[in-house]
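hi! just following up on the protien thing from before. the input was this:
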Amino acid sequence: MKQVSSRVQLWLIAIGYAGVFAISAALLLVRYLQEISHPADVAAAGGMYAFGDLIVYLFIACLFMIPTFFLVRVMARSESAYTTYSQALMSLSLTAPVCLGLLSFRSDRMPENLSALCAYRLMWAPFIVLGIGVSWFLAKFARAKRLTAYAFLVETLTLCTAFVLFIKQL
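and the predicted 3d structure came back as:
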């Protein structure tokens, strides 16, 4: 069987991202139209609508993971591309302890926008751990595998620390 070229694979992945983006935009538009057409229901059951928004956001995040998986598989063939990707993952994972530290130690003096950004960063940490774990599994080169392992370790330890701090405050 003839293998599809990398260029065609990248185009298919781009089409996949465009499709996921279109589906996400449609889901968010329907949700928005529902909320503006029934403002009394939103006011009466704000928590239910907020939970529905969370479910939609989680679904969209899972949808974006599908083409990302295929992109990582294509990048895994190139040592330089995958090493650069692993360095980016390491940089991304280092933002988690910074956000946790900012939320833990300076939450009373921190601007509200920055604290919200840090909270969102930590909220998405389980998805980032999953992505880094899959990236480690797909890594074929020693340096890239080591960098993704370090990124996985940093992200997982930060997530566990955040969980312990949350439980401690209860």
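The mean pLDDT is 92.
Residues 1-75 form one domain.
cheers
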